Amino acid sequence: MEISKITKETLANLIKEGKRIDERKLDEFRKINVKLNISKNAEGSAMVEIGKTKVVAGVKIDLMQPFLDSPDEGVLIVNAELLPMAYQEFEPGPPGTEAIELARIVDRNIRESGMIDLKKLCIEEGKKVYAIFLDIFVLNHEGNLIDASFLASVLALLNSYLPKIEKRYDDLVVVYGQKTNQKLPIKKIPFLVTCYKLNGKWFLDATLIEEKAAEAKISIGFSFENGKKIHAIQKFHGLIDFDELENIINLCEKGCMEIKNSLKNNLKI
Amino acid sequence: MFKKVDKKEIINMIKKDREITYPGEVIASGYEYLTGEGCLREGKDIIAIRHGLVSIENNLVKVIPLRGVYWPRVGNVVIGQIKDVIFNGWLVDILAAHMGFLPITECGEFIEREDLLSLYDINDVIIAKIKRIQPRSIVLTLKEKGLGKITSGILIKIDAAKVARVIGKQGSMVNAIKELTNTKIVVGQNGLIWIKGPNADMELYAKEAIELVAQNPLYDGLTDKIKEFLKQKISKSK
Amino acid sequence: MYEKRFDNRAFDETRPITAEVGVIENADGSALFAFGDTVAIAAVYGPRQLYPQHLQNPEKALLKAYYDMLSFSVPERKKPGPTRRSIEISDVTTKALEPAIMLDKFQNCVIDVYIQIIQANASTRTAGINAASLALAHAGLPMHDLVCSVSVGKVGDKLVVDLTKEEEDYKENGVKASTDVAVAMLGKSKKISLLQLDGEISKEELLKLIELARKACEKIYREQIKALKQIKQKWV
């Protein structure tokens, strides 16, 4: 059901007073629930629930020829699907704009932050490298898919093990179903948080109804281990005032801290 | 002449009232029972055809569904959203298996055919009553007191199967919530609920109370628990 | 000779069953069903509007099941998107579920069932059907019966219930020595709604296997009923 003017008006009025319909603060996340290793057959996998939004991400690793412009680097390929079971309005079919955009933002932040040491995933320069396939599936849509998808992706990657490889008929191949105890070479842990604007106020972790009412939306990706750095930004619909920028960045940073704490509590990372 | 009935048999004949049942389960046995919604008779047995709560009252056996897409009935009050206009009326989404249709003749206002959108625009929300059910559409009417367009307040959605619980026996539950929060509440049979209160806080408390009812429909003594919850919430905010 | 099962089960024993309803909030009905480490999730939306109009049936609702596997549910990555295999399984799944639902109580609409395999160790279509049956009941749809499904087969010289991947791939002297039969039946009436076979088997062996499937389905039926009856009575 399309968000009606009434509900949008009510949400706008509430937020003017710093209130939200579920009584959260503007910079507060819903309850985050995390589960690792949801598929034994993945090299790494995780499920993340933010409130009722449910996303799973899994990593499959194979061997392939590297891309021409990076012959000494492993390959990262990110794919996302908004499954029809997740929301009444999602239809079966190939990924649409929203799914493709989701995948590309996740990809960008992981790549630009240098999370994975792709150079260490080269086996023979120009000939054979590891290929990391990160697949994201949205199982239930209750808003803020990007944050949930990114967190699930990072957790899946952090808990991925390289598969066993062997020589077969003069070629190096993966032995499907067998893992080594070697984890993916991780250099740092990136974070990605989306913030939304309604009636002049910016807030984090929108529920579905808040997302539909939002006048603007922007996702910002950070890492904190080598000093505070921004690695990816994606602005969606709407307009942003120049003097809102600093506030937005601070708000997203605060969001990253909250996710970081939640991970510490959930998984002792 | 008369078959001697075992005491155990009598106890076994009245089965499963207030229990959760599944499609295919025998929920009562005996010709003195009548079948209501959600079940059918197979010889001596009455069999559930839906997942839900068994209710056996005065020999009427029913299965009250716990979930499910709204099933429209003539006379139901529903809340819907205008989706489109055609030459003689508005198409209204009432969250059912078929679209609702509000003909110009049922909108309760005098209006020119070209002027439909100026009265009810796309995405406007209306409280309507179901007048007639046709194979591909559900005909609505606004020609009654209390029906019409909603312009303020909040809208929430619960599972249609929980509506009866939210209303309560003779309105006991919804009236308790209305009184304590000083709000006006219209519960659509299709699960959409409109709340209008003196301020946003009261509207939100009423919303929370309704959602609690919908999440705990089987809880014993629910009305009292909800009253307690609201009293605490309201006194805390003072 | 297949003397002992790889996981030490009895030949007529299923793997431990997990069954749970209400796993996908937005869906009208949903469920998870697992045979050991083969895990399936099903979500139902419906009855709802069916477009295009020419597909609408004025006498009953259309049931459409969609079966697919998450890319990382299997050891070798499955490229996202329908494959010929998933299209075939979607179709037999639809046909296995249809007889259980009172489709004629609806007109001109559709009931969509989405099945995803989260983790695969063979018998995925049967786990999917069990999950779908639970999800349809959970959605409050009028049904005659539940649908129970299990795989049975011949591994080496033994007739077994609920095959794993290892058993499906079993070879003797480098030659395939495994036959796999997928069965689904209505829980109460025991009428068969799905039957597929892949391998080499005699008539007598097949009839014995169907009998084994019947017994296994009784257990599955009980687990499904348990899942449907387990609605929280505590305060949320």
CATH top level of chain A is Alpha Beta
Helix/strand/pairing class of chain A, anyone? Answer: alpha+beta
Radius of gyration from the alpha-carbon trace of chain A, in angstroms: 20 Å
Overall pLDDT score of chain C: 95
Average pLDDT number of chain A: 94
Largest sheet features of chain C: 5 strands, mixed
Q: From N to C, what is the helix and strand string of chain A?
A: HEEEEHEEHEEEEHEEH
Low-pLDDT windows of residues of chain C:
none
Overall geometric form of chain A: elongated
Q: In percent terms, what proportion of residues of chain C is strand?
A: 25-35%
Q: Alpha-carbon distance between the termini of chain C?
A: 54 Å
Quaternary structure type: heterotrimer
Give structural attributes.
heterotrimer; A: 269 residues; alpha+beta; Ribosomal Protein S5, domain 2; 4-stranded antiparallel β-sheet; 5 helices; 26% helix; B: 238 residues; OB fold (Dihydrolipoamide Acetyltransferase, E2P); Ribosomal Protein S8, Chain: A, domain 1; 3 domains; 5-stranded mixed barrel; 4-stranded mixed β-sheet; 24% helix; 33% strand; flat
Would you kindly provide a written description of the structure presented here, covering whatever features stand out?
The complex is a heterotrimer of chains A (269), B (238) and C (236). Chain A has helices at 5-16, 97-112, 145-158, 208-213, 245-267; strands spanning 32-36, 44-50, 53-64, 75-82, 122-124, 128-140, 161-168, 171-183, 191-198, 201-204, 216-223, 229-235. Chain A is of the alpha+beta class and 269 residues long. Chain A has a single domain (5-267), classed as GHMP Kinase, N-terminal domain (Ribosomal Protein S5, domain 2). The longest helix of chain A has 23 residues, at 245-267. In chain B, helix 4 (172-181) runs antiparallel to helix 5, helix 4 (172-181) packs parallel to helix 6 (222-237) and helix 5 packs antiparallel against helix 6. By secondary structure, chain C is of the alpha+beta class. Chain C has a single domain (17-226), classed as GHMP Kinase, N-terminal domain (Ribosomal Protein S5, domain 2), CATH 3.30.230. Helices cover 25% and strands 32% of the residues of chain C. In chain C, 54% of the residues are buried. Chains in contact: A-B, A-C, B-C.
